[in-house]
Amino acid sequence: MRTAKHLLFILPIALMGLLAGCAQHQLVKGDRAYERMAWAEATCHYEKAMQSMDDRAIALRLAEAYGQQNNLRKAADWYAYADRLQALNGEEALNYGRALQSLDRIGEAAKQYERVLIDKPEDAVVRELGLAIADHEAFFVDTTLFTVEPVALPGLISAFSAVPVGNSIVFAGEIVPQGSNTNPWNGASYLDLYISSPGVSGNWSAPMPLAGEVNARFHDGPAAFSADGRTMYFTRSDYYKFRLNKDDNSVSHLMLFSAEKQADGSWGDVKSFAYNGLDFSAGHAALSADGTKLFYISDMPGGFGGTDLYVCERTVEGWGYPKNVGPTINTSANEMFPTMKGDSLFFASNGHRTLGGLDIFLSTRTSDGWSEPENMNYPINSTFDDFSLAMLPGDRSGYLSSSRSGADRIYTFDAHDPTLTLNVRFLDQEEGEPMAGVEVKLLDMTSNDTIVLFTDKDGGFAFPLKPGREYRVQGGKDGMFTESRDVSTLGQRTSRNYNEEFRLKKVVIDRPIVIENIYYDYDRWDIRPDAAVELDKIARLFIDNPQLAFELGSHTDSRATDLYNLVLSEARANSAVDYLIRMGVPADRITARGYGEKRLVNRCANDIECSEEEHQANRRTEFKVTRTTAPLP
């Protein structure tokens, strides 16, 4: 009995020891896979180890490994597990926040970013991520501007970075491995460069590896081509014979190479880029249209952090020393996959304000650098990684790459003009009632075409506008002032309703109309800048009504003598009239008159103490119609 009891006592202990030994064994295997970046293998071993242990560091490794496999749900689960054991902060909280943001769990992501900012309040990238969450709806401001469709390329596990070459595309892709040469990262083949063409029915041909010396034992791609199609720049793993070269931290870097098209159409004469390094990466080449600039990415020392965009200028000796394109483009996170179209630079970043993961941005070359990067918004971008946008000729369509389906895929996109609508309404200013039958002229000042429309019973109409145009809307009716306004669609890239409401005034001979905000400094008659803005509107009104003649009258406050004020008001009236004539009002249709202090609008007569604001109200300008050649009601 004593022996049996003893056995019952030691069996659980032995079992616990056995489980602990098994967990340790799985942990060792997981660590080895992790160091080789064999993420799928690492997650398998780590999860088995975690069945009998509670290790925060392993939970974080599981989160990272699942993130590298684009399994963000599992990554978020393991970050949450680690967070329960001990609160995440710093880089841990940042990575958890990124995973949550990509899963559209933006409220939870915001809390993680707040944790990071407590420790690093100066972190510009985290601030941008927080602002992206606060202004989340801005990414969906106009979802009609692009149509995005996947490209079906048979036989590939993943494909990305499509570059148009004639009617075909060249891209980086991976297939189910054949033989033992397998990428430990995900169990697929290493990346190679492929070419495919669309068929008559819309289906794409089976991708074929590029012929020649460009597809080697390890990763090759993506690629960029010179304008004449004779030179290719492509990214390749740093390797020697059958082994990847690694630095002191066991990291294998990428390098940039060039190749020349041979007489038989294959690619050869492969050369290493002059500014490759043994302890940093270089890749993702892009060329300017004239071939004088080579853009690429690198994490070389001296950058802003992560991978930055660099540019080399072509010289007679070759490519000049690379220059960082600067802080407008580059952040402390990653900028990647540049492409050029004219003066436009497209690139991917997870350091600017993004919808999640990498987003595609557009920046334009300026006289002193680059414009502020503009997020291309949904549906070009998604909550997952979106990158490698390449425009086709005509700038209305092209290709992009995205992991939104769970793996990297190539997509086509087509651009659409924004929907721009002019909504106009005319009201009677005195009655406040809609004015039906108002004749409205819509002048396209770009094409000089004019369309005449009439308002409906509700006093309005709607009219579609074209992007990149300037319009003038002019409307009037017998017995009413005609008014006009300018509407510009220049630079308008999203759909918009332009709403213009006109309140037409009746034309009454000799009835003064105060010109709001036409004031003068004390004892002065020159036109102030704020007055010029209002006089510009009056000039438009006078020009729009060629059948009318006007008097422009000026008034002073009661300070100074009556005679002085009369002279001063005459000077002010003449100054305003001269300004209007310079703005195009015919001199024979406008006269000036000064009234001095004869027609005060408040109590501030001679010897009465008033505030400056009260005196200012008397220093006003009015106009009235003095004659008309048109019928009045």
Structure explained in plain terms:
The chain is α+β, with helices and mostly antiparallel strands. Strands 12, 13, 14, 15 and 16 form a 5-stranded antiparallel β-sheet that branches. Helix 2 runs antiparallel to helix 3. It is elongated. It starts with a helix and ends in a 5-residue tail after the last strand.
Uncertain runs: 1-20
- The portion of residues assigned to helices is 10-25%
Major sheet: 5 strands, antiparallel
- CATH superfamily of the largest domain, by name, is TolB, C-terminal domain
Q: What is the number of strand segments?
A: 35
Q: Could you write a compact summary of the structure shown?
A:
This protein is an alpha+beta fold. The longest helix has about 35 residues, at about 1-35. Residues about 1-20 have low confidence and may be disordered.
